[in-house]
Amino acid sequence: MTAVGIDAVEIWTGNLKLDLPGTFAPEKGEDPEKYTKGLGLNASSFPDSYEDIVTMGANAAHRLMERKGLEPDDIGRIDVATESAFDNSKPVSTYVAGCLEQVYESDFHHANKGERKFACIAGTQSLDDAYNWIRAGRNRGRSALVIATDTALYARGDDGEATQGAGAVAMLISEDPNLVELSAEQGYGSADETDFLKPNQQFPSVDGKRSVQVYLARMREALEDYESVAGEVHPDDLVFAPFHTPFPGMVRKAALLAYRHITRNTEFEDELAEEIGRQPRPEAFDSDEEYRDALREYMDLLKDTEQYAEWYDTTIDPTLTIAREVGNWYTGSVHVARASALKHALEQDREMTGEQLLVGSYGSGAQAEIHSETVREGWAEEIEALNVDEQLAERYEMSWDDYEEIHDAHNHEMDVDVEEFTTPSEEFVFDGWGRMGERKYRYVE
């Protein structure tokens, strides 16, 4: 069976930067370590006044197509995943295609275009759609372009304000991919939850504590479901585990739960038993409450063990490097985590061909998906082509006054005119409004 997966990836980060310990924390009168150690964030990326989800997505896609030498005829579908859409009818993918058609001689008139919405998991769902489209033989030899693009902004003063971010990830889904092959096996955990939502409003309503609980519960269900079709996951089976990363602090919680699960009934649990005892089993307790109390106690001990710390440092921490500097990208965050892990491997001169990633995606509302990916032979060349370090270094660092202005500029409920902080070059930009209230775009040389 021909492999199907991600052939190439490109990242486009917002052109502005907010320093969390240096700028945000002092204005809030808080300890900078609340952000750097608690949330695990150093900075957030923001869109300039001429940027939005269309420009970031189109810029990432354009760079990918140029690097791969692609023309519109090579693309059979364009799927955009976002929870920052500004139209309830016209999909963002049509805007992105319109941008790209400004710089190519041909068009995307014969490409299927759509928009996926399920909070942050929509990017992975779009990958699934593209995978199934190719597997069904409906692609006619063409590839799919999947774009995850968001402005993850919160209301001023909201608990989630420090986790904000903005950017896009473009992925080319093809047969015989260069980067990673997607597994046919998937696991899901899904339930009707109200942990995070945006009911016809710009900024989300969030129950932070509940959201963490739902995230962990759905991830556990998804992992159990994945194992029911793919077999039990062993710690030695995977080199990295990219998770959905609203902020690295939440991944620390998910990683601990995952490690407890995949070490049960293994030699790893046997080794740990000498130090902290064996994992509690529900049948050993008279009530669910007693079992949960014992489990919490075990988890508290587990996170302080050298064995777990070593696994976390090698398997999880490398997935968080980029996220620490950009914040939450909603639909793009797990795909940033994958790129971060492979970038780390390249920098460490580590051979990854044939190695396994266990990818955990999540979207509030709520659903989690677990699948595995096999790293392909061309991975190093693809990751080496990323220029994310240069993008991060070139961002304009905002003052607090700058931040207040740009936050207002991206608040759909406010009509403000904010001068751009950076000068666009070789990128798509927002160019005002059309006769029906549509957003217009142009390419700046």
UniProtKB/TrEMBL annotation:
<dbReference type="GO" id="GO:0004421">
    <property type="term" value="F:hydroxymethylglutaryl-CoA synthase activity"/>
</dbReference>
<keyword id="KW-0808">Transferase</keyword>
<dbReference type="Pfam" id="PF01154">
    <property type="entry name" value="HMG_CoA_synt_N"/>
</dbReference>
<dbReference type="InterPro" id="IPR013528">
    <property type="entry name" value="HMG_CoA_synth_N"/>
</dbReference>
<dbReference type="GO" id="GO:0010142">
    <property type="term" value="P:farnesyl diphosphate biosynthetic process, mevalonate pathway"/>
</dbReference>
<dbReference type="GO" id="GO:0006084">
    <property type="term" value="P:acetyl-CoA metabolic process"/>
</dbReference>
<dbReference type="InterPro" id="IPR013746">
    <property type="entry name" value="HMG_CoA_synt_C_dom"/>
</dbReference>
<dbReference type="InterPro" id="IPR053544">
    <property type="entry name" value="HMG-CoA_Synthase-like"/>
</dbReference>
<keyword id="KW-0414">Isoprene biosynthesis</keyword>
<comment type="similarity">
    <text>Belongs to the thiolase-like superfamily. HMG-CoA synthase family.</text>
</comment>
<keyword id="KW-0012">Acyltransferase</keyword>
<feature type="domain" description="Hydroxymethylglutaryl-coenzyme A synthase C-terminal">
    <location>
        <begin position="195"/>
        <end position="413"/>
    </location>
</feature>
<dbReference type="InterPro" id="IPR016039">
    <property type="entry name" value="Thiolase-like"/>
</dbReference>
<feature type="domain" description="Hydroxymethylglutaryl-coenzyme A synthase N-terminal">
    <location>
        <begin position="4"/>
        <end position="175"/>
    </location>
</feature>
<dbReference type="Pfam" id="PF08540">
    <property type="entry name" value="HMG_CoA_synt_C"/>
</dbReference>
<protein>
    <submittedName>
        <fullName>Hydroxymethylglutaryl-CoA synthase</fullName>
    </submittedName>
</protein>
